[in-house]
Request: fold
Amino acid sequence: MQMVAIRKTIRGQSFPTEITISYQFTRPLIFEGGNLTMNFETSGASGVRVEIQEPDGTPIEGYTLDDCPEMYADSVRYTVRWKHGGDVRPLEGKPVRLRFVMRDADLYAFQFVPFQPDLIHIAPAEPFDMETGWFLDQKRVKVQH
Reply:
């Protein structure tokens, strides 16, 4: 898969620093799978975001850069998630382009893989009791974490 890359370096004026921002675009592609995974590496001060676009470059609603929280990791199989989760099955079989925006990060590979549901984290129904170390869940059953 050929990608177009644009790199821009920003130099700090008040302190010596350089931040490299990269924009990488794929050519239009048609994929099979339910999740997009990446092999990438960032430092603590860098990150990656992904946007899925129409073949003409128009962002697809729900898969825009604004919907994708910045990802920080050193992972060979990191599942990309947007505000609604990581499910890309509604776009399967349709031509799309991927846009990667990286701040001092390295992208080694990406792959569409079979769908895996997102893990759901439910906040406790009542506050944490510091003395007992217990939460009270929504079924009114004590759960220790």
User: Anything to note?
Assistant: The beta strands are 3-11, 18-26, 35-53, 74-79, 97-113, 134-136, 142-144. Residues 121-125, 138-145 have pLDDT under 50 and may be disordered.
